[in-house]
Amino acid sequence: MSPERVTTRTRSRWAWHGAAIVLLIVGLVCRGHAEVSKGSIAIVVPKSNGVTGLTSAQLRKILLGEETQWPNKEKITILLLPPGTDERKAVLQILLKMSDDDFVRHWISEVFQGQAATGPKTASSPTSMLKLVADLPSALGIVSAGDLPPGESGLKVLSIDGKTPGENGYLLAR
């Protein structure tokens, strides 16, 4: 074979290998973006709630019991998944910089000192959480965005700091 023919064949192989690597990288990046939205944590309220978004500071105050009412003066009912669930651990760590035990101790202290009548309520599963939130006008729930039902469900996903699950820069992406 002539050196010219080897060079052309080698260039052609490298071009195909390069194209395959680019397609692989693009596929991984796209897959990663899809997983971010499913792995994000959604803050949900009933569709009838007039609030469309919260700042991370407002959400933090709600979860700590420092902010207890919606703008319409209705008492906020916080609904969380059971201790140890990924969504709960992530929100406590990201927003409150607390472990589950620290969060439980915080709420025991709030109730014991008379700062709160009760602490957050626990839903046994994402499905029961979504049903409870849809049925309680004052509820705020925290679930994986991947657990949200498609279409009309009586729920509204709140934006946090102006972003919703799946958007770049969304605070509660895992």
Report a brief summary of the structure.
The chain has 174 residues and is α/β, with parallel strands linked by helices. The protein has helices spanning 3-39, 56-64, 86-96, 100-112, 126-135, and strands at residues 41-46, 53-54, 77-80, 121-122, 139-144, 155-157, 159-160.
Keyphrases for this structure?
two-stranded parallel ribbon, alpha/beta, 5 helices, 5-stranded mixed β-sheet, D-Maltodextrin-Binding Protein, domain 2, 46% helix, 174 residues, 14% strand, 2 domains
Strand content: 5-15%
* Low-pLDDT regions: 14-38
Structural class computed from helices and strand pairing: alpha/beta
H/E order of the elements? Answer: HEEHEHHEHEEE
Radius of gyration from CA coordinates: 23 Å
Mass-distribution shape: globular
Count of helix runs:
5
Distance between the termini: 55 Å
Can you summarize the main beta sheet?
Answer: 5 strands, mixed
Reported by name, the CATH topology of the largest domain is D-Maltodextrin-Binding Protein, domain 2
Average pLDDT:
84
Strand order of the largest sheet: 4-3-5-1-6
Which bin fits the share of residues in helices? 40-55%
- Total number of strands: 7
What is the domain total for the residues? 2
- CATH superfamily label of the largest domain: Periplasmic binding protein-like II
For the record, the CATH class of the largest domain is: Alpha Beta
Report the CATH architecture of the largest domain: 3-Layer(aba) Sandwich
